[in-house]
Amino acid sequence: MSWLARALRIGVPAAALAAGSPTPLAAQNPCPDMTAATALQGRAAAPPFGVDKRFGTVDNGGRWGVLDSVWNHRSALEQGLLRPVAADDSEETQVEAEDIGEIAVLRDAGDLVRAANIYDLRDVKLRFSPNDDGGYDVSHLGTATWRSPVGEQLTLGDDDSTSLELPFEFSYYANTHEDAFVNSDGNITFEEADSASTSRNVSRLLSGAPRIAPFLADLDPSRGGGVFAQTGEDAVTVTWCAVPEYGSQLTTTVQAALLSTGVVEMTFDAGIGTGTALVGLSPGRTTSFESVDLSDTAGATGGSAAVGERFGLRGELDTVAVAQKFMQSHPDAYDQVIIWTDAPILIDAFAYHVTIANDIQGIGLPTYDIPSDFGSDELSGIAVMGWLGKYSDDTEMKLFEGGEDTTLSILGHEVGHRWLAFPDFSNHDRVRSSALLGRDHAHWSFFFDSDASVMEGNDIEDLGGGAFRTVAAVEGYSPLDQYVMGLRDASDVPSFFYVEAPTNTSPPARRAGSPRVGVTFNGTRRDVLIEDIIEVEGERVPSAADSPRVQRQAFLYVVRGGRDPNPDHVAKLDRIRQQWETYFHAATDNRMTAETRLRPPAATETTDP
């Protein structure tokens, strides 16, 4: 098929694609006036119900999550956004770390919270050119010039993607491509689309498909602006015109041009309002990332790795640095650390967990070792709870209007992410399925009878005749949870079920939604056995007989700006800590103990049967 015929398939006017004519450049942003254009394409609106992705719980399950933490830490050190943690024998370390009872207090001295990296590419044009190492080098072309016209508007909603046929074979890293996918979130991928609503972070840039990211951020063209594509003989351009950030009035206008020579150009408007984004290139499925200063007019060398820069408007807690600082003054004897802060600091999540090492087989997670950056040989996970002020030490208090979660259930949720919830199973057609899973494939589905697990799902009552009702939520760890945690043998896990093809949900609910009591719906009941999980994931190794029954945890309190910790706040956190030990023991049916003392006596593995 000729390049002209391919271009016409995406609706680009033939008059704009005269053979042999280079794409004209314009000094001014060529986007049309978008104030009255937002309804032209009939784009799908964002889901009217379910979890608001801005306030959901972000969980980094698996290897890419921990690598994201490491990449951010190393990049912040290189860019001067984070001070290195002082040596463990320094007087400074002793001043900045102390124990108050069973709470480890760490004072931030510029070494625990990464400074903001303010977006500084407005009215700028960059060129990424192939280098001799198989990657790309970056050059700064000065003031923005745009390829014009922008072409036809694409039909894209929030977290959406559409295919684009290229008029030439585009050479990118070690491969060539004839097709691409334009994604609403400010990026172009090859080989596969990306319409996920997961965090727009470094691990997503690197671990997914090969990607060109002029502005990888949570953009929402269903609410305004538009995304346009123009295909010419010398270049294919994609322009995000005044596309707003999700849940915000701030907009982004940016253009990416794929040249037939293999060069990539990016043009950034002077009026970009959104300041949290990733800009760069990735060959996909890589662990190598070259973090550079894209505003440096001298340019930068990317080598063979992915290359780019991460921008953020606010400071962010650096989990690697927190672990390093804590380990300098405490024994390496903890399975998890649980971090709380004295000020709001989380941006994209209410709380989250990073599994930094996993040696357990058969639970749906890959096995991998802990990176040396954390300063520990024992840690397996870090739970970041965020600002202590948003939690209550009243164990009965619901934290969200219309929700079911309390402080302890959220803590149970984040701690539970050390093991849960990731397994697939063999369904009734003997096909591998993820129907038990919901949000991010790291939580149980709303329509899974999870016995009111803190890992989401619900306790679902079968009313007969294909009718169902949710009757309880977030009460503890189910028998299936306990099997995955190494607390039950497979023979001790009763059958469970999920509801296939749910309809008539009242009030509205979706598979990735938060637990909610009192929702009714219809569907087909599908019973599942633990053997169906084992058929896909394999036996759990180690078995319940060989798994620990004590989870060693440390409660950390990070104090901003060198301030002294508030004694009342520390006392509140200690009450939560003590309540948590009781809650966790009961939530596991007395099969596991949370040991939260900072320096307990000789560890014991005994627990109730």
Q: In a nutshell, what does this entry contain?
A:
The chain is of the alpha+beta class.
Please describe what this structure looks like:
With 609 residues, the protein is α+β, with helices and mostly antiparallel strands. The strands form seven sheets. An eight-stranded antiparallel sheet has the order 8-13-14-15-16-5-6-19, with no helix packed on it. Strands 2, 3, 22, 23, 24, 32 and 33 form a seven-stranded mixed sheet that branches. The chain has a seven-stranded mixed sheet with strand order 9-10-11-12-17-20-18. Strand 9 (161-172) and strand 10 form a beta hairpin. The chain is globular and about 70 Å long. Mean pLDDT is 88; it is low at 1-21, 36-59 and 603-609.
Describe how the helices and strands are arranged.
Blueprint: H1 3-9, E1 25-26, H2 63-78, H3 91-96, E2 97-100, E3 103-107, E4 113-114, E5 124-130, E6 136-140, E7 146-147, E8 152-153, E9 161-172, E10 175-183, E11 187-189, H4 202-207, E12 211-216, E13 226-231, E14 235-244, E15 251-259, E16 264-268, E17 277-282, E18 289-291, E19 300-301, E20 306-311, E21 316-317, H5 319-328, E22 336-341, E23 352-355, E24 381-387, H6 407-416, E25 425-426, E26 432-433, E27 444-449, E28 456-464, E29 467-472, H7 479-484, E30 496-506, E31 520-528, H8 530-537, E32 550-559, H9 567-587, E33 593-595
Parallel strand pairs: 3-32, 18-20, 22-24, 22-32, 27-28, 32-33
Antiparallel strand pairs: 1-7, 2-3, 4-21, 5-6, 5-16, 6-19, 8-13, 9-10, 10-11, 11-12, 12-17, 13-14, 14-15, 15-16, 17-20, 23-24, 25-26, 28-29, 29-31, 30-31
